[in-house]
Amino acid sequence: MRKRISLLFAALMLVVSGLAAAQSDMAFQHGRPRPHVTPPKTRFGSDTEAGTTGVQSTRRLPYQGGPIMETSIVYLIFWEPPTVQNGASAAVPANFNNLMAQYFVDVNGSALGRVQTQYWMRRSDGTQARVQNKVIYGGYYIDRTPYPTGACWNRVTGWNCITDAWIQYEIKRAMTAKQWSTGPNKIFMVYTGNREGSCYYTYANGQCASGTEAYENYCAYHSFFSWGNQAVIYANMPYAFTICNAVPVSPHGNKIIDAELSVTSHEHFEAITDPYPVRAAYGWIDLGEKGGENGDKCAWNFGSYGSWGNQVMNGHYYILQQEFSDLDYDAGRTPCVQRLN
Known about the structure:
This protein has one domain (2-337). The chain is built from 6 helices and 14 strands. It has helices at residues 2-24, 96-106, 111-114, 164-178, 255-273, 326-330, and strands spanning 36-38, 72-79, 120-122, 128-130, 135-143, 161-163, 186-192, 197-199, 220-227, 230-237, 311-313, 316-318, 323-324, 336-337. The chain has a 6-stranded mixed β-sheet with strand order 1-9-10-7-2-5, with helices on both faces. Helix 1 runs antiparallel to helix 4 (164-178).
């Protein structure tokens, strides 16, 4: 009985704090963490950022002294009510959620995951800790709760829009319902339904601030927030329609699913190597260029591929963007790779 009362009280407090957070939104310009985004492919210029090889830059990825995630435990949150705010269907393909979960089972010990093992952090005692090629799928939470109305206005999706504060609230709701705990090796990824946009800063009238909108400025992002005395690492994963489904082939027969898987890989690996994208705690990021994390340097670069894709993981086929490798860069090879040479 005491445990049940405690859970009910915790749920009630989440409602109160969530509504307050959603009303005030996250004021990133006031020193709070700014999300690190996956830009749409159209944001990479042919002669300024992506170049002919698809590499955003040919500069080495430097270490800024902050932490990494040695291993990662991944929790998936599918916020998928039947409709978006204007009544249109928010439905995703029947196998969408299962394939997102399958990826995190398959990526454990994979060739692409091994690329991350070259990155490390400096412990307080001066020793090094490296990224391990170990990913644990922690479980999922499906939420059919309707999206809030009037939260934000996105230029692509209109009032079918949720703010970063609501993404954070959804994570808290899922953690309470599933009794999940947070930690420095855990990441919570929130997937939203078809036609639902988002932004991470709004003006007083609810309009998304320029440069902060899904489908205009990002296809996904990762960041963190404080909850009690813990930091919660998370990613906002909008449904990959419009300009965010730029994959060259579709191993799963649906370009939106395959694009979502590639963007998922991008955000997951960036969170591993730079889990706290704020100046006081940067991990592996090139601060001297736009973007600058390992996934950004090879965003939308798929290397060599066939109709089946470019990665076979645990017997399943994927088309996933390549990852930046300092080891290959130092050896004078193309730094965007599908596996370590």
